[in-house]
Design goal:
Blueprint (H helix, E strand, L loop, with lengths): L13 H4 L20 E5 L11 E7 L6 E6 L10 H10 L3 E7 L16 H6 L19 H16 L5 E7 L1 H11 L1 E2 L2 E2 L6 E5 L18 H12 L19 H15 L23 H9 L14 E3 L8 E3 L5 H9 L13 H10 L6 H5 L14 E5 L6 H11 L6 E5 L7 H4 L6 H11 L3
Parallel strand pairs: 3-4, 3-5, 5-8, 8-11, 11-12
Antiparallel strand pairs: 1-2, 2-4, 6-7, 9-10
Length: 451
């Protein structure tokens, strides 16, 4: 879901922001009927526990659609990132079906507590099954090669034996993954063969993230050091521990899904989670379940761009402060997405550190000696010959589009569409209400124009 959460303190401004607010107002999510199956697909062996040699796709839209848009979530993201966006795209363009991809890592999470009446007790009192890094040595080998090989199974299934057009895209590092797939050499066959277009949402290669101020850590010395740490047992990326909601690989993701679960089911009820929050993040006054979720996701509370949206603020008064929607992303839409089912979910609990290394090394988008040494088969970047769409928010300050333009200039891509909305943060395109989401408005005609 995130791009690359800054490895710095994220608490600045939060407690000050919690005191903000004006008057309460309604928020709602329109119910969208229809079957949205979450389908497993068998993939090759990866050395993980029983049941992990499979991926899933969340399908939104008609099976008879002639175009399938396969979307890859970003860092720590999962299939439910795309459900609301997919519904809006299908409504705007009925001839498309969206497949949201869940990596095999999703099989490692214990989400059974979200099918109970009291998930907070299950997760916060330590009843869930947590994966100890010491028991997850297999994850040291779950890098980009594993991911794109799994993704190839999904792309082929989406193509239906050549009966359907397949567009591949993603958000943040999911966009980077899509670009890697397109340039990948699959036993002599380029990944882009069989694709009709590429869709990049706030991500990519060739310096796409430079504008965030967070450098890409891909020098040979840095990569050697990171690989040594992985070999030493640090198999999971712990970036999200910087949020302050726990030190385990899955801690922050559990808190966010719990916040979404309660805000979705009882938005106006007094927050179940507030008394159990760490002191530094606990709102100073009583809030509702919706109010707590808002404080965890809204940009006004000091959160970094890559984990926040523009939603609203806490009410200025009231014995229990409710949430007031004022922005482009109503908190009820965030709650609907974050709550999950228990499956699919918005958050990936266990992100392999090796995948982070490989995606950093992918950034130059060429078959360098370093990439080759890591088994990254990026041999066909200059031969890309399919249309490209790129959308950027304020997140990277313009480098998403400039990097996409560089890809186009150094390939055979016939045409490209570039869109920008600097009023959005990194997650807004995923959850914003359709009337306020330029991603929906501009991506639909791009897809409609493919031949």
């Amino acid at each position: 879901m995130t791009g690359r959460l800054p490895r710095r303190a994220v608490l600045g401004g939060i407690l000050g922001g919690l005191a903000l607010g004006t008057s309460p107002g309604p928020s709602a999510v329109a119910a969208v009927p229809g079957r949205e199956p979450y389908v497993p697909l068998a993939v090759g062996p990866g050395g993980g526990p029983a049941g992990s040699d499979r991926v899933h796709v969340l399908k939104v839209g008609p099976d008879a659609a002639q175009t399938v848009l396969v979307l890859v979530p970003g860092m720590f993201g999962a299939a439910n990132d795309f459900r609301l966006l997919a519904r809006d795209l299908v409504a705007a363009l009925p001839g498309v079906q969206i497949w949201a991809f869940d990596r095999r890592e999703e099989n490692l999470a214990d989400r059974t507590g979200f099918a109970t009446a009291d998930p907070a007790a299950y997760y916060l009192d330590g009843h869930y099954r947590s994966l100890d890094p010491a028991d997850a040595g297999f994850a040291a080998r779950w890098g980009l090669a594993r991911t794109v090989t799994d993704l190839r199974t999904v792309v082929r299934a989406a193509a239906g034996g050549g009966r359907r057009r397949v567009v591949l895209g993603g958000h943040s590092w999911g966009a980077t993954t899509a670009m890697a797939y397109a340039a990948w050499d699959f036993d002599g066959s380029p990944g882009h063969r069989g694709l009709s277009a590429l869709v990049l949402v706030d991500g990519g290669v060739r310096g796409a993230f430079e504008g965030t101020g967070e450098p890409v850590h891909n020098s040979p010395e840095e990569v050697h050091e990171r690989l040594a740490a992985i070999d030493g047992g640090a198999v999971f990326d712990l970036t999200l521990s910087g949020v302050g909601l726990g030190s385990r690989a899955e801690s922050t993701q559990i808190w966010y899904q719990l916040a979404g679960w309660y805000a979705h089911r009882d938005p106006e009820g007094r927050s179940v989670l507030q008394p159990r929050m760490p002191d530094a993040l606990r709102p100073p006054q009583p809030v509702t379940n919706a109010g707590l979720l808002g404080t965890l996701v809204d940009a006004s509370f000091g959160w970094p761009n890559d984990i926040s949206v523009h939603s609203g603020h806490l009410a200025a008064s009231g014995e229990v402060r409710d949430w007031v929607d004022k922005g482009i992303t109503p908190v009820a839409r965030v709650a609907s997405a974050y709550a999950g089912g228990p499956e699919p979910a918005v958050w990936q609990w266990y992100w392999p550190a090796r995948l982070s290394v490989d995606l950093d090394v992918t950034d130059p988008y060429t078959d360098t000696d370093l990439a080759h040494s890591l088994g990254l088969r990026l041999r066909h970047a200059s031969a890309l010959d399919i249309p490209l769409y790129a959308f950027q928010t304020s997140y990277a300050k313009g480098t998403i589009v400039s990097s996409a333009q560089e890809v186009v200039a150094n390939s055979r891509i016939p045409y490209a569409a570039y869109e920008t909305d600097n009023g959005m943060n990194h997650l807004d395109p995923l959850f914003a209400a359709a009337p306020h989401n330029p991603l929906t408005r501009t991506l639909a005609p791009f897809l409609a124009g493919l031949r």
